Amino acid sequence: MLPTKTAHETNLEFLHQLFASATHDASAAMCRWTDGLITLSLDEVLEIPLEDVCSELNIDDELLTMVVLSLVGEVGGEMILTFDEENGRQLAASLLHRPVNREEQWSALEQSALCETGNILGCAYMNALTRLIDAELVPTPPYFIQDFGASVLEQALITQAATCDKVLICRTAFHREGEELNWRVIFVPTKKMQDLMEQELV
Amino acid sequence: MATVTENATSVGMGQIGSGQGAATFRSVLGSCIGLAFYNPRIKAGTFAHIVLPEAADRPGSKGKFADTAIPEMIRIMQSYGVMPGGIVAKMAGGANMFGHGGPMQIGDMNTKAVKSGLEKAGIKILFEDTGGQKGRRVVFDCRDGEYLVQTVEHTLRTT
Fold first, then answer.
1. What is the mean pLDDT of residues A127-138?
2. Is residue A17 a part of any domain in this protein?
3. What is the ipTM of this complex?
């Protein structure tokens, strides 16, 4: 007898389909923004016990460059775009058509280039999600941050942690000419958004 | 349950670790609080990675909330034979990482809840490094009670 799927597994599959569709739109936007250089694809939709999130995602005390966008309100979430130093610098240089900056401090222009990337990705995701769940999503301006990856992820999880013991995370991979880059988008929807998504899909 | 990585036990969100002598605990904190209890005489300690101020019937482990973590940590110290009067506390974390402002500054709320819980329990805070907008990497060593706090910009150390 074939193993049957639990309702929970089916929900995760539905959510995977939904996020794959949103990621497709985000990839098209990213491709336009980088002159066809960068695309992205949905890696996984995971439900992880709170205490295991950082180890499962392999995010700990590595210093990361991140752009954070919050969708405020009950139907909201946090989107974090992460890069290691080298990849972040390379993206900024390529967008600004300049050589890679080796100064310790990021210039305002470099920060702005990364924030704009976050904005474009965030808006593409948001537009797709708005169409799918028919809810108004209100984003904050993108926020540039350099810190321990786990510290930022922890704060992003707080809203979900207040109501659940497991958290839902959508993880996306980036590619340049078929090669995977050390960039990630992590999206953490609120419980209310998860519920709405599941209602729309079932 | 907390997991051992290299020489230190990694304490994830909502977990509590404890030990005596050669036990070391580590966490990476944002808005959460890393709360350590220690008794220098018997070198026993416990460390919690507290996520939210109060349980209020919400699901989660005892270590997840300030108001459930502190009694559990007191119970653990009592199991080593240490009464609340013999406990010293060290704490770090409670940052507001995203700096958006607004009414829900969870880092500040966590700090207040932990300090209030410690005051009610009559436990003295020997070291505190809380607030700000930066993440912290902390290591707590039961051999000497050292509590090490590192941000991307600086290191603080206390015994």
1. 81
2. yes
3. 0.88
pLDDT of residue B19: 96
Residue A19 placed within a domain: yes
Please determine, for residue A179, whether its predicted confidence score (pLDDT) is greater than 80.
Answer: yes
A55:B10 CB<8 A: yes
Q: Measured between CA atoms, how close is B85 to chain A, in angstroms?
A: 30
CA–CA distances in Å: residue A30 to residues A24, A33, B104: 10, 5, 32
pLDDT in tens, B84-126: 999 999 999 999 988 765 546 899 999 999 999 999 999 999 9
Q: Do A51 and B31 touch (CB under 8 A)?
A: no
User: If you count residue pairs, one on A and one on B, with CB atoms under 8 Å apart, how many are there?
Assistant: 95
Count other C-beta atoms under 10 Å from residue B156's C-beta: 14
Q: Please, what are the domains in chain B?
A: 3-158 (3.30.1330.200)
| Domain presence at residue A39 | yes
B53 to chain A, any CB pair closer than 8 A? The answer is: no
Task: Tell me the CATH number at A49.
Answer: 3.40.1550.10
DSSP-based three-state secondary structure for B138 = strand
Alpha-carbon distance A106 to A128, whole Å? 32
CA–CA separation, A189 vs A72, rounded Å?
11
Question: Per the structure, how many domains does chain A have?
Answer: 1
> What is the Cα–Cα distance from A169 to B136, expressed in whole angstroms?
23
Domain extent at residue A162: 7-201
Best mean pLDDT range from A134-143, A156-165, B60-69: B60-69
Residue type, B98: F
Closest approach of chain A CAs to the CA of B97, in angstroms? 7
Residue A1 counted as domain residue: no
Catalytic residue among B16, B32, B123, B142: B32
Q: What is the pLDDT of residue A75?
A: 82
For B40-55, write each residue's pLDDT tens digit.
999 999 999 999 999 9
Sign of dihedral through CA atoms B131, A159, A21, A178?
Answer: positive
Q: How do beta strands B3-5 and B24-29 pair? A: unpaired
Which structure tokens are listed for A29? 């936007």
Predicted local distance difference test score (pLDDT) of residue A158: 86
